[in-house]
Amino acid sequence: MTDTIALVGKTMEELEELMVDLKQPSFRAKQIFNWIYNQKVSKIAEMKNLPKDLRKQLQQVAELEEFTVLNRQHSKDKTEKFLFQLTDGEKIETVYLPNQDGRRSLCISSQVGCAMGCNFCATGLQGLSRNLTAGEIVNQILMVERLTKERISNVVLMGMGEPLANYDQVLKAINLMNHDAGLNIGSRRITLSTCGLVPEIKQLADEKLQLTLAISLHAPTDQLRSQMMPINQRYPLDDLLAACDYYTKQTGRRVSFEYALVRGVNDSKDLAQKLASLLTGMLAHVNLIPINQVEQIGYSKPRQEAISSFKMELEKENIAVTVRRERGADIDAACGQLKAKED
Ligand code: SAH
Ligand code: SF4
User: Fold this and answer.
1) Does a structural domain hold residue 337?
2) Among residues 35, 63, 91, which one ends one of the domains?
3) 143 with 179, same domain?
4) Given the CA of residue 160, which atom of ligand 2 is nearest to it?
5) Catalytic-residue membership of 244
6) Mean pLDDT of 46-51
7) Do 49 and 135 belong together in one domain?
8) What tens digit of pLDDT does each residue of 8-26 get?
């Protein structure tokens, strides 16, 4: 017996090939694509304009992947966190962030766990179990749209995992999000966040998509960054920033730098000045994130004055900077808190 074919994650071309295999006309692929990614049905039986025998045939060989919803938590700020179980039993988290300005963002995962071992991140503590497939990446959007009955307008690849360590499946998922016959979420409304895998940043630049690239920077010196983020030993700051410049050159897009402020570690005036001089001359934007509490990690947020004065040092040097508003911390849904455990 052959394995059941997963329909979610298939491209238009792959569906056309499936139709050839099933001896069906190729226009059926368009209809199926529309049912999956535009109508977002959860059952093959709901694909009403397909002939009955094709629906039957599909039900025999294929399935629309459904995750099991193990938990759905609501924050007082309207953020919601979903704990999904995948068909092999692995678990991931997805965070829904409705905004006052009408945007409805979804923070999605790209891997089960993460191998990068950043010393401030809950996902990093658990190590990597496996990559997600493109279908599992996109299905987070389909599932949340069905569960909330809202349309997702923006996607951030900032959930569990390092997206550029799962390059091919992530790119396939982005192309599926972009498709105007399906989810129709343009690249400008998608943000990809990376700890700084230099070869993949360059590869992504060459795709010439209009994605927003966010770099998890967190420290302006190699010594400190290597302590916090092991990846810096492989790709130090000079190489990372050169790759960011290349991204801007290829795409015309401004790069966003994430800087999680940790009291007594990376929040001094001296480091703010170092950060400013590192980014001067780049088309850059800095997002300051007061570090979120993670069990087993003894980091704490700086006081408000320290956050403001760090911000001021950057503004003095004309660096565009914002402080990220904390969302969903009461349900452990804030940046770096995802660990896909039911407790
Ligand atoms: N692996 C990718 C994307 C997932 S992490 C990356 O590292 O960029 C999403 C964001 O949360 C990153 O900017 C990451 O550095 C940040 N983050 C991780 N742990 C955090 C914590 N405890 N507090 C605040 N931000 C954190
Ligand atoms: Fe992985 Fe990103 Fe967490 Fe680092 S911050 S461990 S790269 S998920």
Assistant:
1) no
2) 63
3) yes
4) 8
5) no
6) 96
7) no
8) 999 999 999 999 999 999 9
Q: What is the 195 CA–ligand 2 centroid distance (Å)? A: 6
Closest CA to 7 of 182, 192, 153: 182
Confidence (pLDDT) at 2: 59
Half-sphere exposure of 271 toward its Cβ, with a 13 Å CA cutoff? 22
Residue 107 lies in a domain: yes
Q: How far is the CA of 233 from the centre of ligand 2 (A)?
A: 15
CA-nearest residue for atom 6, ligand 2, is: 124
pTM exceeds 0.90 = yes
326 catalytically annotated: no
Same domain, 298 and 186: yes
N-term to C-term CA, the chain: 39
Give me the CATH number covering residue 37. 1.10.150.530
Task: HSE, CB side, 13 Å, CA atoms: give it for residue 93.
Answer: 27
> Residue 255: beta bridge partners?
284
CB distance 114 to ligand 2 below 6 Å: yes
The residue-averaged pLDDT of 204-208 equals 97
Distance 190 CA to ligand 1 centre (A): 16
Range of the domain at 144: 71-331
- Going through 162-272 in order, the beta strands assigned E by DSSP cover 190-194, 212-216, 255-261
